[in-house]
Amino acid sequence: MASDPRACMMRGAMADQNPLLSDRDVDFQLYEVGDARELCRLPAFAEHSGETFDLFLRSARSLARGLLFAAYRPMDAEPPRFVDGRIEVHPAMRAIWAQMAELGVLGATRPYAVGGQQLPRTVAIMAEAYLMAANLGAYGYAGLTSGAAHLIEAFGDAWLKDQFMRRMYAGEWTGTMALTEPQAGSSLGDITTRATLAEDGSYRVTGHKIFISAGDHDLTENVVHMTLARLDGAPPGVKGISLVAVPRRRFAADGVTLEDNDVSTAGMIHKIGWKGLPSLVINFGERGDCRGWLVGEPHQGLSYMFQMMNEARIMVGVNGIATASVAYHEAVRYARERRQGRPPGARNPQAPQVPIVAHADVRRMLLRQKAIVEGGLALLVQVARYSDLAEHAPEPAVRQRNQRLLDLLTPVAKSFPAERGFESNALALQVHGGYGYSSEYLPEAWLRDQKLNSIHEGTTGIHGLDLLGRRVFADGAFVALADEFKAAIADARTVALPVVWIEQFELAIATIATLTVELARRGQAGEAEFMVRHSADYLDLFSTLCIAWQWLRQATVAARALQAANTDDRNFYEGKLCAAQYWFATELPRIDHLVRLCQEGEDSYARMQPDWF
Amino acid sequence: MASDPRACMMRGAMADQNPLLSDRDVDFQLYEVGDARELCRLPAFAEHSGETFDLFLRSARSLARGLLFAAYRPMDAEPPRFVDGRIEVHPAMRAIWAQMAELGVLGATRPYAVGGQQLPRTVAIMAEAYLMAANLGAYGYAGLTSGAAHLIEAFGDAWLKDQFMRRMYAGEWTGTMALTEPQAGSSLGDITTRATLAEDGSYRVTGHKIFISAGDHDLTENVVHMTLARLDGAPPGVKGISLVAVPRRRFAADGVTLEDNDVSTAGMIHKIGWKGLPSLVINFGERGDCRGWLVGEPHQGLSYMFQMMNEARIMVGVNGIATASVAYHEAVRYARERRQGRPPGARNPQAPQVPIVAHADVRRMLLRQKAIVEGGLALLVQVARYSDLAEHAPEPAVRQRNQRLLDLLTPVAKSFPAERGFESNALALQVHGGYGYSSEYLPEAWLRDQKLNSIHEGTTGIHGLDLLGRRVFADGAFVALADEFKAAIADARTVALPVVWIEQFELAIATIATLTVELARRGQAGEAEFMVRHSADYLDLFSTLCIAWQWLRQATVAARALQAANTDDRNFYEGKLCAAQYWFATELPRIDHLVRLCQEGEDSYARMQPDWF
User: CB A183 to CB B612 under 8 A?
Assistant: First the structure.
């Protein structure tokens, strides 16, 4: 460390060496632990190969490490501006948007027929992870547009596909998800935005939405809001919600020119992270002239949204891991470079100071981050594979089984990265010491970015209730997952791993299975409140088990490959085995206590009254 | 919740109802669990009474809830500016500084002889907690000045006391702690700032310091930097560090006029929180004309600093709890007001939505915050009492015993509020949902403020090493603490508390005692690395035990008072019992696993190599 303090403060800017994700680990997850190339046997992916996968990944990496990462700090420092009713985004976004569209990010997993690249999700999420790690806000425009277009692709009519979807996948227009209203955050059944059928077959839309990401900008000529609204006469609650596509500008009578569609921006929310992406209050129909087009059938809006929700939630999981990953790599680099102090017991105060990675407690913080980041990434790859098979396997039974696994694991894939990722990001800041507390260094920005992930697309609390109130009891789901666990155990037994890991893992599975059956019994006996009381703890223990599973799989491959490996690979595999050990020793044993809380239905917060706080 | 989204966004500004801390709880901690009035029996506090305590507390509360809290958001939004080499702070600080000085915050605990109020620390920390909860950055100027003046009071000569200290306690000048240098963050032995004796008996100081809070401002005419420096010929390392008082401006030859002392501000660090308080890079002697005055004996600087360090560390603990407290109260209020969703199993989608405090998982998040905030506050009151007795008890044996307890608990009192406080602040944000993610609401600001507390005055990692490497083995310390635990147990047995809490607590004490003896044996056998390997886990388990002790004490008082209480008090005591239950059920059992990690010396991060990350 140079002794000029100003030089020190500049080191935070030298982030160009940050790999965002470890390429070696991405290869390991896709091709050594996973079998991504095998997906090419599916008819949908027949035109792909390891080469086309890698080509896409290399392009995404390069775009991420170049344009996106370079713009991250400026975009964080200069958020969009709300000027004369319109949103102006950071100028760097223009080139980024063009390049993301050019790369084909918008339709990466979509069929050739709609202009997509028909790539497996397994591969696509890795490319997206690089882009997110580089610049979460910048990627947001693409993720939202892709999701919005996908809704039309899945449920819209030919006109909507031709007029809206095509332009969105091509990057000519962007899209949003317009769900939330001020009085209806997590409670979508309470939305009040209205859509009234007009003579021309379109709908007149009135209402206001809040937290609409990328709801306006100056990147493209139009924005399509995939809007939840009530048609006239709709039943109350979630059964009366329809999906309406509401463009900011609509085609004029000539069918070519775009004219104003009475969609206005009422305000911008000052988010604490994802600053490149505006979050807006949007009003529809202030002048009574806002037109929307129904997507699919009336009153099916929430069901359509939920069919896309798994996808969106997995994307949140990728956000979480990507954001933890870039901070982890920054912390590793800092810990190797920053010299501070001497080993315990060193007696010579004039001996050179050591890099802080030499201190065991710093390595503890780094290894914990590694265990979270790489364990979480492994789970996401696993879940993406289930998604690919659920959608594209030729055999109905295979599709069904994979859909069950996907459904069961989605709350974990969404929440684990959000919750543990936040902890991981806080550790990356802590490794940087006082420098980490300044905005000259990046860890604080990633910590801010990360915090959204436990809130959007369903809070962690809601995912806990979803898992324990519904998904874990879905027909055949738990059994299918247990079979996956067994396969991992069988493979682990073929290599030299500590037997105690396998025993511990088997015991944890059995314990959690017993607990789950017992809670189901409680639920059936009318004790629903008891059943879900510790849903947060259940989500935690279930997630901890799933990540142990992923560390067992990674450790198995690492142990098998270690003997024949060269030096770099040996280092890589040893690191994997250390992180697996950390998870089995430090995290997995925590579940016993959590199981007890669920089993006993500890009732402190259940009986706590509002007036007692 | 109003349905106009702009109205919704304004609710964040309605924070005037936030009590900062619960007055009821402050009274409970001081006078029901604690016996603050008994301190008046000590000669030092003979002129005080419950009335003078309450008068001071009321004044501090009023200042905190008025001027300080009103300025919090503006000061967070408009940090100090660095203009033409000088720092300009927020204009609101001028009145705040005057009022804090007027209130006597600067010398609250100091003797009448130096212009202080000679209040017990037990009472002073409560007053300070209100001020910190209202505006951590604003209070910072006072805390630093007080600490700096106290160093001169304790170790300086008559001239320094008359010229510097007197003006500092009076609020005419401010003070700083100038320890850190770029190449010597946590490793103070590596500082290089020099002080060379001049013919006039003062020293010529050269060097640069970083992270100097309140190192410059436009509030008062002068700033005194309590600076660690090396005298010529000083031994290397920590044994060659002296304490030098270096004012920004010195008296000219006339002894009255202030002239420039060659202390310059080289830069401002953009901290992510505590934004009202500038953090600076300070250069001494760029023109070779910076004079400093030695405080105490040569080469004793670090020892002087460490004598003040307990005080500073407890203040960090109070920062942590205060910052968690204000956010907790904001979250409780929000959860009672914000309507969202319906109880599980509710079938009518048109029934009114319920306040989110009706959802068990929201109460879980609130109760966890309560357990952390009030458990931490109780520990701080306890530790402050030890401090009062260590300093002012007439009997040497009593002083010694209390000093031991204070020394042993200081790492816990500093780190628990920082670590769990951060978690608590994150939960307060989470309770606010999407609104919590915006800077229109305050929880995100408090989360940023809190993060510093795990870094400054020794990182959490360093406190773990300090506790397990030294303090827990100090002569008689653990035994004294065990006696305190026993007294709490004896008292708890006299009321109707669940027997299982007491059994659990006793078992935890025994387990930790056994572990500690075993680790001491390892250390004596030359296995120092093994001994301290899990110092972070040891700090965690030790803290968890100490907070259980504080919850047992609080529950005992609550259970005793419950029967005869009126409605408000019943609610209060029931809340205490619920929070105690939460801690015993949810937190205390975690220690078994942590004890095993320490005992077995789990070695994943110990053997992890830098190249394996």
Answer: no
Provide φ and ψ at A264, rounded to 5°.
-125, 155
CA distances from A561 to A28, A326, A484, A573 (A): 11, 27, 22, 8
Hey, which residues 549-608 in chain B have their CB within 8 Å of chain A? 571-572, 574-575, 578-579, 581-582, 585-586, 589-590, 592-593, 596-597, 602, 604-608
The answer to whether residues A148 and A141 touch, using CB atoms and an 8 Å cutoff, is no
Separation CA B30–CA B373 (nearest Å):
15
Is the confidence metric ipTM above 0.90 for this complex?
yes
pLDDT at B389 over 50: yes
Give A90-93 contacts, CB < 8 A, sequence gap 24+: A90/A276, A92/A67, A93/A138, A93/A141, A93/A217, A93/A219, A93/A276
What residues have CB less than 8 Å from A245, skipping those under 6 apart? A152, A156, A160, A164, A224, A225, A226, A227, A292, A293, A295
pLDDT in tens, B43-88: 999 999 999 999 999 999 999 999 999 999 999 999 999 999 999 9
Closest residue on chain A to B461 (Cα): A361
CA dist A352 and A305 (Å) reads 60
Is B391 assigned a catalytic role?
no
**What is the pLDDT at residue B2?**
37
The candidate with the shortest Cα–Cα distance to B375, out of B423, B330, B340, is B423
- Identify any residues that bridge with B194 across adjacent strands, giving them in sequence order: B206, B230
The CA-based dihedral angle spanning residues B353, B355, B359, B363, taken in that order and rounded to the nearest 10 degrees:
180
Residue B6 confidence (pLDDT) above 60: no
Decide: A292 and A205 in contact? Cβ < 8 Å.
yes
State the pairing for strand pair A263-269/A258-260.
Answer: unpaired
Express each pLDDT in B170-191 by its tens digit.
999 999 999 999 888 778 889 9
DSSP 3-state of A223? strand
Element spanning A580, H or E = helix A567-582
* Amino acid letter, A298: P
Could you tell me how many helices (H) and strands (E) chain A has, helices first? 22, 12
Question: pLDDT tens across B290-322, in order?
Answer: 999 999 999 999 999 988 888 899 999 999 999
Task: Please name the residue ranges forming H helices in B161-235.
Answer: 166-169
Question: Which residue type occupies A504?
Answer: Q
| pLDDT for position A209 | 97
Residue B24 buriedness (CB in 10 A; 0-12 / 13-18 / 19+)? middle
- Are A412 and A418 in contact by the 8 Å Cβ rule? The answer is no
pLDDT tens digits for range B47-58: 999 999 999 999
DSSP A340-408: ----TT---TTSPPPBGGGSHHHHHHHHHHHHHHHHHHHHHHHHHHHHHHHHH-SSHHHHHHHHHHHHH
Which parts of chain A sit beneath pLDDT 50?
1-15
C-beta separation of A156 from A164 below 8 A: yes
Query: In which band, very low, low, confident or very high, does the pLDDT at B27 lie, cut at 50, 70 and 90?
Result: very high
Q: What is the dihedral of CA B547, B553, B554, B555, to 10 degrees?
A: 100
Tokens of A219: 């990147």
pTM of the complete model: 0.96
- CA A410, CA A392: separation in Å to the nearest integer? 18
Q: What pLDDT is stored for residue A345 in this prediction?
A: 76
Handedness of CA A66, A70, A76, A81 (dihedral sign): negative
Name every chain B residue with its beta carbon within 8 A of the beta carbon of A448: 444
Q: Which of B95, B90, B63, B59 is nearest to B77 (CA)?
A: B90
For helices B591-600 and B499-524, angle between their N-to-C axes, nearest 10 degrees: 10
Distance CA B269, CA B182 (A): 12
Does the beta-carbon distance from B341 to A186 stay under 8 Å?
yes
